[in-house]
Amino acid sequence: MQQALSYIGSVIATLSGGLGQTLLLFALTILISLPLGLLVSLGRMSRFAAVRIPIKLYISIMRGTPLMLQLLFVYFGPFYIFGPQFTYGRFTAAVIAFGLNYAAYFAEIYRGGIQSMPRGQYEASAVLGFTRSQTFFRIILPQVIKNILPATTNEVITLVKDTSLAQVIAVVELFRVAETTSSAQASVYPLIIAGVFYYIMNYVVAWIMERAEKSLSYYSA
């Protein structure tokens, strides 16, 4: 028993470095994609075709091609297109690719939430003397955030699992470390422990989002 616990402890210690990279990639992706997604959604709904059409194309490409392919393109593309002076690190490439990819998904979630708001709320705000920006940020956006939290939670949970795709450009994240350790030790336990880590991260995400949803329940009709 003590030997088994010692082995598990050593595996956890080995995986901890990859876990740190996974958590950092996850956090940076959220920090980039959530606000960028809101901006993209507003551009997607723009009345100006010069803004709306390129953004629709961007969303279509991000949602219509594999994230793994996007990772490869973001990392290797600048080198082949512009030359070696435009190269950057693997982790930076992963953050850029994940941020752009998830911004497209969050943009469509935002758009659905914004367009679902009753027109009467805009009219009532105008009657009360609110400007367009005040109406959006003080009245519409808080309700939108409440309404889109379930869909956003699904995407965030997917992001936790998708971080494992960063290994395609040799980012040393949790799954890559687990896979390497499993091969070196000829044991499946590092992969099982990595799976437990992913489950715990997703459980924490779901708990946080559920608490946020309850805290915004006063916006429910």
Report on the architecture of this protein.
This protein is an all-alpha fold. It has a single domain (2-219), classed as MetI-like fold (Orthogonal Bundle), CATH 1.10.3720.10. Helix content is 81%, strand content 0%. Helix 2 crosses helix 4 (90-115). The longest helix is centred in the first third of the chain and has 43 residues, at 2-44. It is flat. It starts with a helix and ends in a 6-residue tail after the last helix. The mean pLDDT is 89.
**Gyration radius, in Å:** 21 Å
Instruction: Give the DSSP E fraction (strand runs of 2 or more residues).
Output: under 5%
Number of domains: 1
What is the average per-residue confidence, as pLDDT, rounded to a whole number?
89
User: Helix proportion of residues, in percent?
Assistant: over 70%
Low-pLDDT segments, ≥5 res: none
**What characteristic shape results from the CA principal axes?**
flat
What would a concise description of this structure say?
This protein is mainly alpha-helical.
List the keywords:
single chain, 221 residues, mainly alpha, MetI-like fold, 81% helix, flat
